[in-house]
Design brief:
This is Meiotic nuclear division protein 1 homolog. The structure is a single chain. Strand 2 and strand 3 form a beta hairpin. The longest helix has 37 residues. The protein folds into four domains: 65 residues, Arc Repressor Mutant, subunit A, CATH 1.10.10; 40 residues; 30 residues; 50 residues. A three-stranded antiparallel β-sheet has the order 1-3-2. With 221 residues, the protein is mostly helical. The protein is elongated and about 115 Å long. The model has no long low-confidence stretch (mean pLDDT 80). It is 65% helix and 5% strand.
Length: 221
Amino acid sequence: MSKKRGLSLDEKREKMLQIFYDSQDFFLLKELEKLGPKKGVISQSVKDVIQSLVDDDLVFKDKIGTSVYFWSLPSCAGNQLRNVTIKLETDLQTNKKRHAELVEQCKALKKGREESDAREEALHELKAIEQKHNELKEELAQYADNDPATLEAMKKAIEVAHSAANRWTDNIFTLRQWCSNNFPQAKEQLDHLYNEVGITDDFDYFELPAVVPLPVTNGEL
């Protein structure tokens, strides 16, 4: 024996609407949950079905005191259906108008783009220009290190590093002088320590080499 098929959502909506149309009365939700099973709609799904009808303006609800009542009349469904029909007809006319506009735009865009030898030649030339443009961009990227802004930034970074190096050199000389003044008896041990860490007799302030300008050929670097 085959299992009985359950009702679809649309079928449940029709069954619950029929309750309102037959009685033309007002109902509490708990009353509808009792009436639903008599129409084949299980009580657990009545609330969701009623809410879907309310969302579609097929069932109305009003709060009276602390209770919420649901109601619907056949005339309400007729009015709702007429409103939906009017909206669909309006949308259809709007879409037809938009379609006609797009067809005209398409025709206008096709003008001057008919297949011809001149158009093929122009497209071929455009493709060649785009390829040359990309090649020049790649070549330009290779010379980014010679960009004036990049060179200026590197120059400033070198100046900062040079200043910091000489500042530490000055600190080392100050520390050596302090050690010599306060620990004269440990001169040999201090000299040995200096040599171990790389502070030899030729240790001095760092001087930047003179900048030699690059040769200029035909006005270019």
